[in-house]
Amino acid sequence: MPETGEPAIRLDRKSAGQLIYRAGPRVDPLTDERRMTLTELPVRALPRALENAALRIEEETDSTERVLMARDFVMERVIYDISESVGAHYAAFFNRTRTVSWLDFVLDFGRGDCDVKNALLVFLLRRLGIPSRLAIGVIGKGGGLSLVCMHGPSTTSEAGGWWMQQEN
Known about the structure:
Layout: E1 19-25, H1 32-37, H2 48-58, H3 63-77, E2 79-80, H4 84-94, H5 102-109, E3 111-112, H6 114-127, E4 132-134, E5 137-141, E6 144-151, E7 154-158, E8 161-166
Parallel strand pairs: 2-3
Antiparallel strand pairs: 1-8, 4-7, 5-6, 7-8
Helix pairs in contact: 2-3, 3-6
């Protein structure tokens, strides 16, 4: 098995669940202009399933709970899958004349890697008015970088900082 970098967290025993960690403090408050950029959506309407999820989540008043509900929606709808067959399915989608949007495709197919799942989460969070972005990066090893270990988490800006959602 190829090395994938050093773990950010080591556990003494096997564990299951989710890891949510802070990406770093937000030093400057979000300006109105930056907030608008981070909540911007394409003009086209969102797929019905995504819009319905947003309407349910909007009923919650606590912003942290809204972020968690959005994350749960994505986790339930899209299985983390990095198999070759999934990659081939996405390649076929992008290499043909499309009759459905990428969002519809993802929701119908129900599989994707970290950047697919987190891009979907960013769409939902932005629809909810929560500043968010897809933060593509690499995982380091021994102080260096390894391009073999790319990762695509989403980050949201609530409660004074950027928070990273890791939800495979």
